[in-house]
Design a protein that fits this description.
Number of domains: 1
Strand content: 15-25%
Shape: globular
Mean pLDDT: 84
Number of strands: 9
Strand order of the largest sheet: 2-1-4-5-3
Number of helices: 7
Length: about 200
């Protein structure tokens, strides 16, 4: 959904739609999510979710489920304003034994923050990540730049930023050869790239 929805459209969205990240997505037109994959991580994703939730989101009383699937975004959250479970989807690129837990903790924090700070209109335009979202994210994850450095070091060639849509897309044809490739360890990434990127906020 581009631009700022009218009050009527937004009210209707709250009644009949799921929300994906910070914006409403009409149920009848939303793309089906692919089947979830078995986790290849050497640690428990559920344990990470529990850790992040207890640390930053104790006030969230709704169920949250996580899984991996080959989607068009690196990660996103789907939920309904009417309540019920929220679902966090991670791209298959992240389903690898070499994915650092720090990176997934950062992504979990980012996606769960959408439940606390939803999108809103700013100067007549709908914004999924308003300024207060970025401020709070930086407070919760002060070392998020290291996670972004790892993401771009390992997947940079298959990622495409869409600033107007506030999305980070995964190019399918470029991602397929990367799925089984060994991951560069986080410590090695930081030795080479430091804490980059520094210049701006990045969308998932």
């Amino acid at each position: 959904m581009r631009g700022a929805p009218s009050r009527t459209r937004l009210d209707a969205a709250k009644d009949c739609c799921l929300w994906r990240d910070g914006r409403p997505v009409r149920t009848r037109s939303r793309r089906k999510v692919r089947h979830p994959e078995l986790s290849l991580l050497p640690y428990s994703l559920d344990d990470l979710l529990h850790k992040v939730r207890n640390r930053h989101f104790r006030d969230l009383d709704r169920p949250i489920h996580c899984w991996f699937s080959f989607e068009e975004s690196l990660a996103f959250i789907q939920h309904s304003l009417a309540g019920g479970p929220a679902h966090i989807h991670f791209h298959s690129l992240l389903n690898h034994p070499g994915t650092p837990s720090e990176v997934l903790e950062f992504i979990l924090t980012h996606e769960m923050l959408h439940l606390q700070i939803p999108g809103r209109e700013i100067d007549g335009r709908w914004v999924d990540h308003p300024p207060e979202f970025w401020t709070r994210e930086s407070e919760l994850v002060p070392r998020k730049r290291s996670s972004w450095a790892w993401i771009y070091a390992n997947f940079g060639e298959c990622l495409k930023r869409e600033p107007k849509l506030e999305r980070l897309l995964v190019i399918r044809s470029r991602a397929l050869p990367v799925l089984a490739r060994p991951r560069i360890p986080l410590d090695d990434v930081l030795k080479v790239f430091g804490m980059r990127p520094e210049a701006e906020e990045f969308f998932l």
